[in-house]
Design a protein that fits this description.
The protein is α/β, with parallel strands linked by helices and 682 residues long. The protein folds into 3 domains: 224 residues, 3-Layer(aba) Sandwich (Rossmann fold), CATH 3.40.50.740; 198 residues, Dimethylsulfoxide Reductase, domain 2, CATH 3.40.228; 114 residues, Barwin-like endoglucanases (Beta Barrel), CATH 2.40.40.20. 29% of the residues lie in helices and 19% in strands. It contains 24 helices and 27 strands. The strands form 6 sheets. Strands 5-4-17-16-15-6-7-14 form an 8-stranded mixed beta sheet. Strands 22-26-23-25-24-27 form a 6-stranded mixed β-barrel. A hairpin with a 7-residue loop joins β4 and β5. α5 packs parallel to α14. It is globular. The N and C termini lie far apart (58 Å). Bound molecules: ligand MGD (2 copies) and molybdenum atom (MO). The site of one ligand MGD has 27 residues, from β16.
Length: 682
């Protein structure tokens, strides 16, 4: 290695399982290359294709350089403005609206997952410092599963992936790690080499399924029915773990009686399996232990997604596959997120941060935006969010946005969302700013230090919050409580407690500059068999769920809600070379990204008279789009998949609430994978 490079530490802040630690190599003020960081005990020096392309992202010719103003909105007529002008316009509007409505409720923030760094909570902190404002709350990714895990185990844990080297059976249940979590594959393949059998349960014969020993093609949304069928088989053949159930669970007698009453025939019919498949799965779970089950996010983006996760949790518990090395039913974790979140309330003595928010459901944002009239929302701040490609009810959203007086978007690039904005502010990347990022899957914490100067006039989220706070207070004394004089490093400092340092085995956050650290949590999830549920045990029967108008059990059969007008389910699966809408502008990927196609089974195509590569009409209750058809035998005849994602696909989606999510994420999940559609030749 040329010693004239300066080497800096970074972490990928995207919404992704891997949250990779990165080394940046700079020379002459320019980032020259990136590599993975070998000191990261999970990603072990490897990045994904997107990660290795960060240079092309940072220096992309389309990257935003200056604050830009579009007038009139939607015209495409953009003009460069100075930061002073931009901040003046924004602060002026905030003060004007405050006078008009005598509150700050007409100000709204919609932020999601463009950047998951802790300092990227600056805008939420800034909004908290204004008193009560309107705020997108909720979560599109994982809400149903988060509540389900909470009901069953009381908190969210995952095992170190090394733990699966002890597994005899690995079930990848509605997760496609070959595309969305590639660093886990080293562990999965190693376990396979050591003799573990890998089973994938998915409606699609995915790249992951192709690497597995067994593939179970399930009907979308029917995982609870499948779990119920397996549970019935286990009961009938006395394959359950009596001792484990007695010691660590509550509600077994009730669950047993309930399962007895459900029909095996109906369960098999709903999930589309034979009794032989059920016997195979039951025996793997009960005999070929320890069994490790990974429950993905895709499988819980259904109306009954939370119930389905609870059903699988129950299956793992009744077979004694929780808390033992190599076992578990795992979804995502929060145990390592030991931050103080001081950045959300950097003014502990100020009453304003306790004022709360007027919630706008992030999953039903268009409707909630229109519903609020006293006062109406007039100002929207969008950050880390591509609202127009990732939201439901997109046409209503466009209409709702027309009633707003100022829309500000903070971005790296012009997007479908900036088209609907008045002001666009350029943001720094993880190579130009400080930050700390944790993962929702593994247990490592990594740091971002600035490697290069901010790109042209881009600024960090924190800097923007400080600037705006300062300007507001110039206009009106004490208007904003967000600190204007605290440095980035001080903000980081305040996120750590002695307890957090102890868990990281460091004394100061700057030690993260020597390499990422693992948070000292149990290597096997629930290894101590302590559960933070009301009973202190795994709750096969949950009174808390019942109190929230849910079934006390996860198991159960589906209510048949198929719509004859829209008999097919369109799955919105996440893709290997993108994170949601990001990275599609990389030229290196354009060569491999094809025109978006709707994939259908050739037999379904034959029935519909659809030719391969012809244009077809894809219709939902919400609207229709025209798209090219392609064939795939990886699907069954009731399921469609779009690939790569079509920027217009959200036109077809209205908000369908999942069953759970309110307890852990302030809103029910988004049943995006219950999209009922029809398809016809043009
Ligand atoms: N490369 C890449 N990585 C990513 C992302 C990305 O866009 N690209 N996105 C990130 C984000 S935001 C998220 S939320 C995660 C998503 O990560 P995953 O959960 O892996 O992603 P999905 O592709 O949504 O769904 C996974 C699988 O669930 C299957 N599935 C859908 N419905 C059902 C069902 O009813 N039952 C069963 N058994 N399976 C079902 C789908 O066919 C799919 O193969 O990945 C993160 N990582
Ligand atoms: N059709 C469809 N809709 C979906 C989904 C789907 O699979 N299909 N998935 C759902 C899921 S699981 C999720 S997680 C959501 C994702 O919803 P979003 O989080 O809105 O999705 P992204 O496309 O990742 O958009 C993030 C935006 O943030 C920008 N960005 C990146 N880094 C920064 C930064 O440091 N600062 C700022 N200010 N901006 C930054 C990116 O350029 C990008 O435009 O979408 C949901 N909606
Ligand atoms: Mo997500």
């Amino acid at each position: 290695m040329d010693e004239t490079y300066s080497i800096t530490r970074h972490v990928c802040p995207r919404n992704c399982y891997s949250t990779c630690s990165i080394l940046g190599y700079s020379k002459n003020g320019r980032l020259q290359k990136v590599t993975g960081d070998h000191k990261h005990g999970y990603t072990k020096g490897l990045l994904c294709a997107k990660g290795y392309n960060y240079i092309n992202n940072v220096y992309h010719p389309d990257r935003l350089k200056y604050p830009m103003r579009q007038y009139p909105r939607g015209s495409g007529q953009w003009q460069r403005v100075s930061w002073t002008e931009a901040i003046d316009i924004i602060a002026g509007k905030i003060i004007e609206l405050n006078h008009r409505y005598e509150s700050n409720l007409s100000l709204a923030l919609n932020k999601y997952s463009g950047n998951m760094g802790i300092l990227h909570h600056a805008m939420e902190g800034f909004f908290n410092g204004l008193g009560k404002t309107s705020r997108a709350v909720g979560n599109p990714c994982w809400s149903p599963g988060m509540d389900a895990v909470y009901y069953d185990y009381g908190e969210h844990q995952t095992s170190d992936m090394q733990d699966i080297l002890h597994s005899e059976t690995i079930i990848l249940w509605g997760i496609n790690p070959v595309w969305t979590s590639i660093h886990s594959l080293n562990y999965i393949y190693e376990a396979q080499r050591r003799g573990a059998k890998v089973i994938t349960i998915d409606p699609v014969y995915t790249e992951t399924a192709k690497k597995s020993d067994t593939y179970i093609q399930i009907k979308p949304g029917s995982d609870g029915a499948l779990a119920t069928a397996i549970a019935k088989y286990i009961l009938e053949h006395d394959l359950f773990d009596h001792e484990f159930i007695d010691q660590y669970t509550v509600g077994w007698e009730e669950l047993k009686e309930y399962i007895h009453r459900l029909s095996m025939k109906e369960a098999l019919n709903q999930c589309g399996q034979t009794i032989e498949a059920i016997q195979f799965l039951a025996e793997r779970l009960a005999i070929h232990r320890p069994v490790y089950i990974w429950m993905g996010f895709g499988m819980q983006r259904h109306r009954n997604g939370g119930q389905n996760i609870r059903a699988i949790n129950a299956l793992a518990a009744m077979t004694g596959n929780i808390g033992r090395q190599g076992s578990g039913a795992q979804f995502g974790q929060r145990a390592t997120w030991k931050f103080t979140y001081h950045i959300l309330n950097p003014f502990p003595d100020d009453k304003r941060n306790k004022a709360g928010v007027r919630p706008l459901d992030i999953n039903d944002f268009a409707n909630d935006l229109q519903k609020q009239q006293v006062p109406p929302v007039k100002f929207l701040w969008i950050t880390c969010r591509n609202l127009l490609t990732q939201s439901t009810n997109v046409e209503e959203l466009k209409k709702a946005l027309q009633t707003l007086e100022l829309i500000v978007t903070v971005e790296h690039f012009m997007t479908e969302t900036t088209q609907y904005s008045d002001l666009v502010l350029p943001a720094t990347t993880q190579f130009e700013e400080w930050d700390i990022v944790a993962s929702y899957w593994h247990h490592w914490i990594s740091i971002n230090q600035p490697a290069i100067e901010p790109y042209y006039e881009s600024k960090s989220e924190l800097e923007i919050a400080r600037l705006l706070s300062k300007k507001l207070n110039e206009y009106k004394d004490h208007f904003s409580a967000f600190p204007t004089d605290m440095e980035d490093e001080q903000f980081i400092e305040q996120e750590f407690t002695d307890e957090f340092y102890q868990a990281l085995h460091i004394k100061d956050w700057r030690e993260l500059l020597n390499g990422p650290r693992r948070v000292d949590v149990q290597k096997t999830a629930w290894g101590t068999m302590e559960f933070k549920t009301p009973s202190g045990k795994i709750e096969l029967f949950s009174k808390q769920a019942m109190d929230n108008q849910l079934s006390p059990f996860g198991m159960g059969l589906m209510e048949n809600e198929s719509n004859p007008l829209f008999p097919y389910i369109l799955l919105l699966n996440h893709e290997p070379f993108r994170i949601n809408s990001q990275f599609q502008n990389l030229t290196s990927f354009k060569e491999i990204s094809r025109e978006p196609c709707i994939y259908l089974h050739p037999l379904l195509a034959k029935e519909k008279g659809i030719q391969r590569y012809s244009m077809v009409k894809l219709v939902s209750e919400k609207g229709e789009i025209t798209i090219r058809a392609n064939f795939s035998t990886d699907l069954n005849q009731q399921t469609l998949v779009i690939f790569p994602n079509h920027p217009l696909i959200n036109k077809l989606i209205s908000f369908t609430a999942a069953d759970m999510g309110k307890v852990m994420t302030s809103g029910k999940g988004n049943a995006l994978n219950d999209l009922q559609v029809n398809i016809a030749k043009l």
